Amino acid sequence: MRFLVDVWAGTKLAIWLRELGHDVAEVRSRNPQMGDDEVLQWAAEEKRVVVTVDKDFGQIAAHGVRIGVVRLPDASEATTAACQEFPQAGK
Both ends of the chain: CA-CA distance in Å? Predict the structure, then answer.
């Protein structure tokens, strides 16, 4: 599966999906402050499923955007903050 992991979904999630053999791109690698419309456009161009905790994506996707969106609604702010942190190699 091809995923596009939003900044707030976190790097740990992206790494885990890669370890499972998925093709994963991360918004943070291109522009951590990328707007929702740009994220959706990128996902559509590369036929990726957006993974996010952002409620706005569900609302946007419901208005005719032809991409998949997986929203992680139960992720708390503490959980998403922890998921964004990933130790540097050698630390």
Answer: 31
Give the β-pairing of 69-71 and 49-52.
Answer: parallel
87: Cβ contacts below 8 Å, ≥ 6 apart: none
Place of tokens 């957006």: 50
| Model confidence pLDDT, tens digit, residues 12-45 | 999 999 999 999 999 999 999 998 889 988 998 9
- Token duo for residue 6: 């939003």
Structure tokens at 9: 């979904």
Q: Give the pTM.
A: 0.72
3-state helix, strand, coil in the chain (%, to 5): 45, 15, 35
The DSSP annotation for 8-45 comes to GG-HHHHHHHHHTT-EEEEHHHH-TT--HHHHHHHHHH
